[in-house]
Amino acid sequence: MDKKKIKRSIGGVELIVFGLMFFFAEVLLTSAVAADFKTDSVVKIFATRNTIDYVNPWQSRGVQEITGSGCIIQGNRILTNAHVVNQNTFIQVRRESSQKKYIAKVETVGNDCDLAILRVEDPEFFNGVSPLEIGELPNLQDTVTVIGFPMGGDKLSITQGVVSRMEGMDYINSNQRLLGVQIDAAINPGNSGGPAINNGKIVGIVMQGISSSQNIGYIIPAPIINHFLNDLKGGQYAGFPYLGIHFSNTENKTLRKYYDIADDTGGVLVNNVLSFSSADGFLKEGDIILEVNGVAIGDDGTFAFRDNERLDMVHLINMQKIGETAVLKIRRKGKMSIVKVPLKPISNLVKIANYSEKPSFCIYGGLIFTILSTDLINLLGANDNLPPLSFIYYNMGLGSLNEKRKREIVVLLKVLPDEINIGYHGRSFEIITKVNGKEFDSFKQFVELIENTQGENIVFEDEYKDKIILSCKDIDKITQDIIRRNNIPSQFSDDVAQWKKEGN
What we know:
Elements: H1 3-36, E1 42-52, E2 60-73, E3 77-80, H2 82-85, E4 88-95, E5 102-103, E6 105-110, E7 115-119, E8 143-148, E9 157-170, E10 177-183, E11 195-198, E12 201-209, E13 217-221, H3 222-232, E14 241-242, E15 245-248, H4 253-258, E16 268-273, E17 288-292, E18 295-296, E19 302-304, E20 310-312, H5 314-318, E21 325-332, E22 335-342, E23 344-345, E24 361-364, E25 367-371, H6 374-380, H7 389-395, E26 410-415, E27 430-435, H8 443-451, E28 457-462, E29 467-471, H9 475-485, H10 494-503
Antiparallel strand pairs: 1-2, 1-4, 2-3, 3-7, 4-5, 6-7, 8-9, 8-11, 9-10, 10-13, 11-12, 12-13, 14-23, 15-16, 16-17, 17-18, 17-21, 19-20, 21-22, 24-25, 25-26, 26-27, 27-28, 28-29
């Protein structure tokens, strides 16, 4: 036989052997998992969504069909990611053991923690199912099994990895800082919402993978899941509490000397307190937080957790419920004291992401206005684009530092070119602070100031005192003509139209 043919034959055999090894490894893994729990508690989610276009708020970005994963838990409920079912128009679910799809409805969404509950009315869907239980926070180096339907596949995918890190992280769905767990199991689109299993129990729900890194992904850990589910027992989801401070560690020796911090003392330095937050009126700039609920805080902002592990201080606050009180031991101007802080949800001038709520908007003289929201910021930040720095500033809570009033931030999205607005055609993504020299606290007040304009001109002023001045003569007629030419169905969003109707 020809040597080249022999080499090719050997290569083919090697390929076949490798494929068989991979196949049997997958079978063994599947069998091991199946022995641990019934895989029919994992479901594939088929969602149809009509994504809102927050830059052109009168229209959608088109209908999309996506798939995700979920798992059946106690009470005939399906647990999944909020981002899998947000902005849905129709949802179906299918168990691994069945080819039949069942209609599902969204019962509860927690955008802050990226979790959601689905309900299926047909009891047939749950026949013979073994609901999964929620476990505990895994340990570092624990093996976890990730189960779901990645890449749109119809067959269950089972991968394994280890817990490599756990720390506070900003959840992409909400920008709220909560505990996240990093694993090195393969996670791909479609895995979202599926369970991460250890010892037959859910220790996490798959949240996201990192496309730029191989086999790095994040799960929403059990304590966050349990907080979400326990909150629902009260009948309505309230969310996670938010202290509302910016702080820094106290590791630097010079800093410690400056603030007269003893060598054997940990704690973090309060740099500022956000207006309208839980801490507003209770904590002050320069305070040193030494303990949270009796737990000592290190100079790096962490606390001792289990053997040789430390977690972010924020987790101690997150594990409380809204309405409960955080007991803080602080050092203020050299004196120790106990401060009791009633906990509230996150409070920011930027409207928190809702995803299913249509944005408010109005159009005058070709100028399109809306409310600054995390939905808009996230859309502008997609595909590695950078939103305006002022938007980021407000989204970080920095815009709330010196505010004395709670207000909605009004944004000029863009200008639809017309003769009336010549000279302003390039203006976009500006924060508007005044109408005709008057401030406002809400989008409704903003609209009312426009509607009640007296005189020849209407004047819009942005945060840099740059003005846009339009003639009021025939502005209603001109606005309707601009809307018609640009194929925009309405001058106002439905809520604004309702305000105007009620005001007449």
